[in-house]
Amino acid sequence: MAGLKGRDLLSLADFSPTEVQELLQMASQLKSQQLRLRCNKVLGLLFSKASTRTRVSFTVAMYQLGGQVIDLNPNVTQVSRGEPVQDTARVLDRYLDILAIRTFAQQELEIFANYAQIPVINALTDLEHPCQVLADLMTVQECFGSCTGLTLTYVGDGNNVANSLLLGCALVGMNVRVATPNGFEPNAAILETARSIAGGKTEVLLTHDPEAGTKGAHVIYTDVWASMGQEEEANDRLPVFQPYQVNDRLLSLADPNAIVLHCLPAHRGEEITDEVMEGSQSQIWNQAENRMHIQKALLASLLGAEEI
Ligand code: CP
Ligand code: NVA
Q1: Quick one: DSSP state of residue 79?
Q2: Residue segments in the chain with a per-residue pLDDT below the cut of 50
Q3: How much is the pLDDT for 189?
Q4: Cis peptide leading into 74, omega within 30 of 0?
Q5: Which of 48, 52, 121, 122, when mutated, tests ligand 1's pocket best, judged by the most ligand atoms within 8 Å of its CB?
Q6: What positions does the entry give for carbamoyl phosphate binding (predicted)?
Q7: In sequence order, what are the beta bridge partners of 122?
């Protein structure tokens, strides 16, 4: 997609509704092999947090496009010895064609993007996980034919995934409800942005009532109760989040054709039960697969890949 060439993806709000739709369509054509793209470029992965899906799906996507990948584990670079982000960014910019970063502070990602001319992709920060949510929207579109007019309910911690879901749903014309315990709401500025994108045409709702939030929803989504970097809070959070577990009882309140999504990794028995993860409404494995297809579309668009 010509309009995305050379751009960054730091927040899902960086993309317009049309750009998101075009990416979803491109990813679906790549998945069905109706479309074949090639770009002989080099992707760097600079991940300061653990990753299975994002690391492997980006790597395989880039290989399938004919490109190459360098895994820039901070521990084996000078990043871990305190080299300033501004300096690292300007140097990596001279070697790489595109850079995906997983880190804690969104601000660090923004500094990278300011100092590097090459496209910079948010591969998860404490604030957002846009690549995940693009794959989630692709999964919803596959299951229902279109996202427009459906309702997604996110139940659990108002974290990076919840923030990106607010933006993503607003961008594709879905109603979005986020049910969290008091004090664990999503980011207020992102909520405001999501409301402004939705423009009153779709619902953007925060609630503390998981049952009311789930009623009639088409997509039930959850994520861990303590994200990477919050491990010390995990035990204290358990009793607070217990009423927000996605289990058969909660799922029975959703639309009968509702699907269940989870970005993974899951803490089975905490935010989601085994029964729901393995149940007939779970689309979790397709969702994980779609990370690879949507990120291939994203890489191809940001790099300007050629059709073959
Ligand atoms: N969902 C997701 O981003 O998984 P990883 O942390 O394994 O990359
Ligand atoms: N909210 C989780 C998502 C992991 C993919 C975390 O940040 O750890």
Answers
A1: G
A2: none
A3: 98
A4: no
A5: 52
A6: 51-54, 78, 102, 129-132, 263-264, 291
A7: 101
Amino acid at 264: L
User: What backbone phi and psi angles, to 5 degrees, belong to 222?
Assistant: -145, 170
Residues 42-99 have pLDDT tens digits of: 999 999 999 999 999 999 999 999 999 999 988 889 999 999 999 999 999 999 999 9
Q: Are 202 and 174 in contact (CB under 8 A)?
A: yes
Residue from 49, 51, 126, 287 whose mutation best tests the ligand 1 pocket (most atoms within 8 A of CB): 51
- Residue of 21, 39, 102, 262 marked active site: 102
Structural domains of the chain ordered from first start: 12-128+291-307 (3.40.50.1370), 132-287 (3.40.50.1370)
What is the number of other CB atoms lying within 10 angstroms of the CB of residue 14?
A: 15
Question: What's the ipTM?
Answer: 0.99
Alpha helical stretches, state H, 264-305: 274-278, 284-303
Query: What is the pLDDT at residue 58?
Result: 98
